[in-house]
């Protein structure tokens, strides 16, 4: 696994990519998908944050791509999202008619060296990166007690959580729960966060978490009905690398705020370094769109231009905050930099987490 990248070198690489895109801008005019259907593979079930994200983007992308093709979201769950990613890496033609939506639960197995991973991010061309946040929520009764006295509330309750697996994006909340001293007992095997939410709605779990898009679209209505309430957000990363309140949920305390309240001190040590590294990797570049290995420069440029048009679209801007949250939507050089953030950690951090997974969940990578 590569060490953390050099911002200077990568910025230079990004500028080179920008120059290349400019050079082929004339050629991309010859690219047309008229009368075609673009399949957007999402490696999760319907109803989760990644599914909602892709379905929100799809009609805008259809209008922006040359020839205005139909953009159809194809759900391909399985093996904690690695099934869809492996399929994209091995069986997709580089003709621009299939794109892939990677999520945090696809990135983390890659970072951890999961043997089921048969894909390499550096082989693909990234054309969009969406940052996001995450919210942990529970029942209104537990949430009210937690806000007043988190230590007592955690001592008095056992928390059941539907989980895709400890090596997926659930690693971030599971490690956070461990640091808080919250007795979370994951029920492994769900295929997406939408299924985790349904477990909560059926009373089979009393704690859950969702990425911002899933929370806004599916959980906020539960909050409004008095059936759920937030405990904390994972937060956001500011320009100095500090965890601050999520701009989409400024009234909800962050994990760091709760941790400091519980422990009485600022977070530090290998647990904290691991949590922060995987939070940054899994949420700063939480959702990405790729074209497969071998895609021509002209097709890549056409998609880059289309997504740039989408994120500048007035209708997209007006509605994206409600659907996706208030987060950056990166293209071009920004997407390349965010890709590195989402797919690179230090060997020390990886080693610590692999050992923790082995000791905590008997997961041997």
UniProtKB/TrEMBL annotation:
InterPro entries cross-referenced by the UniProt entry: BUG, Bug_dom1
Q: Tell me yes or no: is Signal among this UniProt entry's keywords.
A: yes
- Range of residues in the leader sequence: 1-29
Task: Give the highest taxon in the source lineage.
Answer: Bacteria
Keyword terms, alphabetized: Receptor, Signal
Question: Which family, according to the similarity comment?
Answer: Belongs to the UPF0065 (bug) family.
Name assigned to this protein: Tripartite-type tricarboxylate transporter receptor subunit TctC
């Amino acid at each position: 696994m590569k060490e953390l990248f050099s911002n200077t070198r990568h910025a230079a690489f990004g500028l080179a990519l920008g120059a290349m895109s400019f050079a082929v801008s004339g050629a991309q005019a010859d690219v047309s998908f008229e009368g075609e259907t673009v399949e957007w593979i999402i490696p999760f079930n319907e109803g989760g944050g990644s599914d909602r994200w892709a379905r929100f983007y799809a009609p805008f992308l259809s209008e922006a791509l040359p020839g205005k093709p139909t953009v159809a979201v194809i759900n391909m769950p399985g093996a904690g999202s690695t099934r869809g990613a492996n399929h994209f890496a091995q069986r997709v033609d580089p003709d621009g008619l299939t794109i892939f939506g990677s999520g945090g639960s696809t990135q983390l197995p890659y970072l951890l060296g999961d043997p089921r991973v048969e894909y390499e991010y550096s082989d693909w061309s990234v054309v969009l990166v969406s940052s996001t946040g995450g919210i942990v929520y529970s029942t209104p009764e537990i949430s009210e007690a937690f806000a007043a006295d988190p230590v007592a509330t955690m001592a008095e309750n056992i928390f059941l959580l539907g989980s895709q697996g400890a090596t997926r994006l659930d690693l971030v909340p599971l490690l956070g729960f461990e640091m808080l001293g919250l007795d979370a007992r994951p029920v492994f095997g769900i295929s997406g966060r939408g299924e985790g939410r349904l477990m909560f709605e059926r009373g089979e779990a009393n704690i859950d978490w969702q990425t911002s898009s899933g929370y806004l679209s599916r959980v906020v209505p539960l909050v409004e009905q008095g059936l759920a309430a937030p405990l904390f957000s994972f937060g956001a990363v500011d320009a100095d690398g500090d965890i601050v309140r999520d701009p989409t949920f400024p009234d909800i305390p962050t994990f760091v705020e709760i941790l400091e309240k519980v422990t009485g001190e600022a977070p530090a040590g290998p647990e904290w370094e691991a949590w922060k590294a995987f939070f940054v990797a899994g949420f700063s570049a939480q959702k990405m769109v790729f074209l497969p290995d071998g895609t021509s420069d002209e097709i890549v440029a056409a998609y880059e231009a289309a997504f740039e048009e989408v994120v500048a679209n007035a209708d997209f801007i007006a509605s994206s905050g409600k659907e996706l949250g208030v987060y950056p939507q990166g293209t071009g050089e920004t997407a390349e930099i965010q890709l590195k953030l989402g797919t690179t950690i230090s060997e020390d951090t990886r080693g610590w987490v692999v050992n923790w997974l082995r000791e905590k969940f008997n997961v041997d990578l």
